[in-house]
Amino acid sequence: MHNDGAIALVVELTDKIINEFVGIWGGNIGLLTAYEERITTHNSLLTHAHVGNGTCITLENATTTAETCDALKFNVNNPTETWLVSVMFVFGMCHYIYRNLSLQVTNRHMAYFCASIVAASTYPFVRYMITDQSWTNMKLNNSEKSMIDRGHAVPMFAWVLAATIQMVSYAFHHQKIHNTIGRLTYYFLLPLMFTELSLNAVFVFVPVKPKTLAHVLTGTPMDKVTPWQVFLYSLPHEDALCLPIVMAAYAVLSYKALQHNNHKKRDIRMHIFWMAQFILATSQAGVFRWQVQYDMAVSGCQHLSYQDEPALALIQMLAGDWVILWWTFFPILMYCTLSKETRQNNWVVKSTAYGYMVYGLSSPLSCYVLNIPSGIHCTA
After folding, report:
1. Is residue 277's pLDDT more than 70?
2. Using CA atoms, how far apart are residues 200 and 204, in angstroms rounded to an integer?
3. Looking at the whole model, is its pTM more than 0.85?
4. β-sheet bridge partners, residue 284
5. How far apart are the first and last CA of the chain?
């Protein structure tokens, strides 16, 4: 999926650095050889098992609409272990950043930043409304399209419009407008959006996508995928499934910061901080669609777009897990706008920061546990 040549170069350089030290004792570390052998092992498992009803089933994945077993849809070019290395690296960096980095950002600069993130993440949805083509590149049946158009697009665009007005009105000192839209958002739009996202995840996402993923990765026919397989292959998507919970937590914390508790004044700074985290969480859906477009181009899989092709479920899952890996840095950097004292002593701040790390890295880690390759390249 990603530039395997670049990854191999990094591994080769790591080999050289390590061998400069262990070579003194006559040792040799062959990380590059192990990396290439692992890819070869993955692709050797693409051994044809049987053909029936126009479907070519392979030992480790399934490809559809193939006239012969020689028409494989993809080969592995990045092995499973990359997930584990990436998770360890991102967690280590986020932990270090959270504990040591401090950023001086004003409330209004934070509002400008969030507004730009909302604009960028909204573009894929605007394009969908204009062209009727989703940037997930998946083919939607009439039932799914109707549910997304009516139930998903309208509440999400209402939220984006309200959030944009709130950020711009605050940045330009129109507090009355900001407060009015804020009340509308808290008491009407947010409950509607939480309900819609939860139902969307249940009725549109499950069990179709994990079922298709199990079919692609195990070769199990679609009508014989078990509930246990559906559960297992839902784990790489748990960042999407748990997103409403993350959003709800940030929304409640933002609301609580505005309340007068035990004669304490409202904490405007924390209200803005938690709402900024909420906006970053909601923006994941749009950023994910940008990642899908990038991965489709790099993997050479554009020709599969909008077809009834199960391999698209794997491409979509890979895009989702790669984007949550690098996107995790943004919320953690947002925490660095708080003082080090707050980050170390406020248990709510600290628990949500590390909780987000666990949330963001659990899906890629599930891919490693399930032996899902971290990159593919389409072959037909």
Report:
1. yes
2. 5
3. no
4. none
5. 15
Checking DSSP bridges between strand 62-64 and strand 55-58, what pairing results, if any?
antiparallel
**C-alpha pair distances (Å), 39 with each of 20, 43, 263, 329:** 26, 6, 62, 29
Give the whole-angstrom CA distance, residue 264 versus residue 257: 10
Tokens of 177: 């407008």
Rounded CA gap, 223 and 205, in Å? 17
Tokens of 26: 């006559």
Task: Judge whether 204 and 148 are in contact, CB under 8 Å.
Answer: yes
Distance CA(369)–CA(334), nearest Å, equals: 30
CA 253, chain centre distance (Å) = 23
Q: What is the percent of the chain where pLDDT is above 70?
A: 72
Beta strands 74-78 and 62-64, pairing class = unpaired
Nearest Cα residue to 349 out of 361, 337, 359: 337
Task: Check residues 53 and 278 and name the one with the higher pLDDT.
Answer: 278
The C-alpha atoms of residue 278 and residue 331 are separated, in whole angstroms, by 9
What integer pLDDT is reported at residue 376 of this predicted model? 87
Report whether pLDDT(335) > 90. yes
C-alpha of 222 from chain center:
25
Distance CA 227, CA 177 (A): 49
> How far apart, in whole angstroms, are the C-alpha atoms of residue 355 and residue 351?
6
CA-CA distance, 254 to 38, in Å (whole number)?
Answer: 47
Angstrom distance (rounded) from CA 251 to CA 245: 10
Q: What is the DSSP letter of 236?
A: G
Q: What angle do CA 280, 286, 288 make, to 5 degrees?
A: 95
Q: Tokens standing for 293?
A: 């477009």
Helices 347-369, 311-327: axis angle to 10 degrees equals 150
CA–CA separation, 119 vs 163, rounded Å? 11
Question: What per-residue confidence (pLDDT) applies to 195?
Answer: 73
Indicate the residue type of 90: V
Please write the tens of the pLDDT for every residue from 141-176: 676 666 665 566 666 667 777 777 777 777 777 878
